[in-house]
Design a protein that fits this description.
- The chain is mainly beta.
- The protein has one domain (7-104): Nucleic acid-binding proteins (OB fold (Dihydrolipoamide Acetyltransferase, E2P), Beta Barrel).
- It has one helix and six strands, in the order ββββαββ.
- The protein has one helix spanning 56-60; strands spanning 7-13, 18-21, 27-37, 44-53, 69-82, 88-102.
- It has a five-stranded mixed β-barrel with strand order 1-3-4-6-5.
């Protein structure tokens, strides 16, 4: 039996997404997200680096800005590195396979003065509840 590495979550972007082109010519979209876990006094925030390989990132980069809520799924890995000061750091990295913005678009303000009032006669009498 083989292992399955699929990490799915919802979180909020902590920065604007960016697309860069590597020396090999491949493009990668990168952005960081904050994922809350637990509740009350046990609440913690996990910071995850997201990367999406290929041309798809060019099309979506403009929509993935700081503060937006996202739902994403992909393969989770751990990356260890050392700062110039010698401090050991750990990053959680998700190679994104699917990502969506979640939440609603801002609603347009409705001018109630020009909106006709709804009358009871506008609705059918046979509402099933």
């Amino acid at each position: 039996m083989s292992d399955l590495n699929c990490f799915s979550f919802t979180g909020r972007l902590t920065q604007d997404a960016a697309v860069r082109t590597l020396a090999s010519g491949k493009k990668v979209l990168t952005v960081n997200a904050a994922v809350n876990t637990g509740y009350g006094e046990y609440k913690k925030t996990l910071f995850v680096k997201l990367q999406m390989w290929g041309e798809h990132g060019d099309k979506i980069v403009q929509y993935f800005t700081r503060g937006k809520s996202v739902a994403a799924a992909g393969e989770l890995s751990r990356s260890e590195w050392q700062t110039r000061e010698g401090k050991q750091m750990v990053d959680f990295v998700v190679d994104v396979r699917a990502i969506n913005l979640v939440g609603s678009k801002p609603q347009e303000q409705v001018n109630h003065q020009n909106t006709p009032d709804a009358n009871a006669s506008d609705f059918p009498d046979d509402i099933p509840y």
